[in-house]
């Protein structure tokens, strides 16, 4: 595989790589330049039907493949991903914009998910129930069936692997639709699976108009399970489509992560972690630390030191040396983020740093810090999905927890304190699927990843993520 971005991209259906031909195309753009770099073919209705047929035919064969053989293919794919990480990372930086080191790191982290699920599949035990002599009752787990999976552009490899790895490990076939903005890096991940020996038809990769592709796939009786990562409105729409066929869903939707910074925290360590975390991937992270609630006794110190550190974040082309933050991923994001900042400024927020789109080619935006942001500002209620930290002071633990829980979202939350009692209270009281205390790690791969309230339902990763692709069956013998 060449480091050069492919001028022509392909679909993968029923074991065949398919060129554009007469199909409509989506123009892939480099966000660091704003210039087109490739054409991506959009699947036709006939392509989608062919993908459904292939997944339907492959499912019983893959379901009956011994788990050890499935695991061996996943392990081999993980090895290939690690070998090819520099090249896949270059594709990701070209199409998504994140710094190259972060892109390569995403690929290697994604590879570990294949390894984890390969082993989890071997440990997916059923159970035998206690019955009188001569009778047997037991519980077993079986793959749910063909899956339709939809993933976004912010983590072009890491998010799809969370769907591919458990589906394949469980014995399901899967049709994956990655984001049209970032197609090449997930396609190369699929190539690793195929080169590792994954049989034809187990995985298909399609692109196209998101609404058309999702409605067509979800409506098909072939599909038994839907997995989606993306916005709350789109997730709700897909759930309505899935309800027509009573299809299982895993929904990893939006977040707006609160960060509770207590006055007894290790301030320097906290700052080092949260500033790096906030501007990772230009804040385009569903679990990005965003709403900073800082205890009044240290608020001024925290605000000043955070701003000083944020001012040192190096912004530029992800291929350049020494870059901490690349561009936003598409032309929609700078204006959306800018509108939220202007709304907050108009309602009384203080702009401590940044606040503007950078005056150069591409979709670059300043690292931004807003202080004393009023609760009625849009950015305090809607996820900015950009390089913006918003801050407010608090006085008491109860006040901090109330503020953290005030939104209908609940994906990730963070807290920094040296008090065991405070840490325990935060862990118990925060309404979020994941809570990290004195760190920012919420997706280690062997732990469940998912939200509560409007941030979705179901879990990815670990044994919970594997079970999401299986059905529970009770068998009673007399």
Question: How would you characterize the overall build of this protein?
Answer:
The chain is of the alpha/beta class. Helix content is about 40%, strand content about 20%. Strand 18, helix 12 and strand 19 form a beta-alpha-beta unit. Helix 8 crosses helix 9.
Please describe the structure with a list of short key phrases separated by commas or semicolons.
seven-stranded mixed sheet, alpha/beta, 2 domains, 478 residues, Aldehyde Dehydrogenase, Chain A, domain 1, 38% helix, six-stranded mixed sheet, 21% strand, single chain, Aldehyde Dehydrogenase, Chain A, domain 2
Spatial separation of the terminal alpha carbons? 58 Å
Question: How many discrete domains?
Answer: 2
Query: How much helix, percentage-wise, in residues?
Result: 25-40%
Radius of gyration: 23 Å
Q: What is the fold-level CATH name, i.e. the topology of the largest domain?
A: Aldehyde Dehydrogenase, Chain A, domain 1
Strand tally: 22
Q: Please name the CATH architecture of the largest domain.
A: 3-Layer(aba) Sandwich
CATH H-level superfamily title of the largest domain: Aldehyde Dehydrogenase, Chain A, domain 1
Biggest β-sheet: strands ordered side by side in the sheet: 14-15-16-13-12-18-19
